[in-house]
């Protein structure tokens, strides 16, 4: 005897998506399925027994569809949690890498860091002379501990701006907007 319909066990593998789709369709059309089975079984059964079977079948189909939807929802939640955890781990690793690159070098003296913003023009002129390649023995700027601030050791100096030249005085006779 050959099995047919939904009770038949198939020898082939069916994807979970197809099973979900089938359960949803059975749930959606449960009324139609139950009525069709009722018409086929009407041969000698009592009406009450038929209605009871129809009701049970409809409930089973709806429960199957709801279970499939719940399984799909749980799978989606698990996938989103995996993605969130992966993103958090990547962010944590990026933060740790950033912290490693930003660590302050122990050889930098805090006094040198304070001097970065408090340099006078006399100090700039004297340190330019001290660190200029012409005044060093090997032609390279000197980076000795007492030779200036940290910025100067790195070759950065404050530029001394000369006062801007006075603008030429305009003729006293001309009014604003008047062409001479």
UniProtKB/TrEMBL annotation:
Highest taxon of source: Eukaryota
InterPro entries assigned to the protein according to its UniProt record, in alphabetical order: Env_Response_Regulator
Chain intervals for the UniProt region annotation (Disordered): 65-95, 126-149, 161-180
Basic and acidic residues bias locations: 70-95
Protein name: Uncharacterized protein
Organism for this UniProt entry: Aegilops tauschii subsp. strangulata (Goatgrass)
């Amino acid at each position: 005897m050959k099995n047919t319909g939904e009770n038949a066990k198939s020898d082939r593998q069916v994807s979970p998506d197809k099973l979900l789709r089938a359960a949803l369709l059975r749930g959606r059309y449960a009324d139609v399925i139950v009525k069709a089975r009722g018409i086929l079984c009407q041969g000698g059964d009592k009406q009450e027994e038929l209605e009871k079977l129809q009701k049970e079948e409809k409930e089973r189909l709806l429960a199957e569809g709801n279970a499939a939807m719940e399984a799909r929802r749980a799978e989606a939640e698990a996938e989103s949690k995996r993605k969130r955890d992966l993103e958090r781990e990547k962010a944590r690793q990026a933060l740790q890498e950033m912290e490693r690159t930003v660590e302050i070098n122990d050889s930098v003296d805090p006094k040198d860091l304070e001097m970065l913003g408090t340099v006078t023009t006399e100090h700039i002129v004297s340190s330019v002379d001290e660190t200029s390649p012409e005044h060093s023995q090997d032609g390279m700027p000197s980076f000795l501990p007492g030779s200036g601030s940290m910025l100067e050791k790195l070759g950065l100096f404050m530029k001394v701006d000369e006062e801007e030249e006075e603008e030429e005085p305009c003729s006293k006779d001309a009014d604003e907007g008047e062409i001479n």
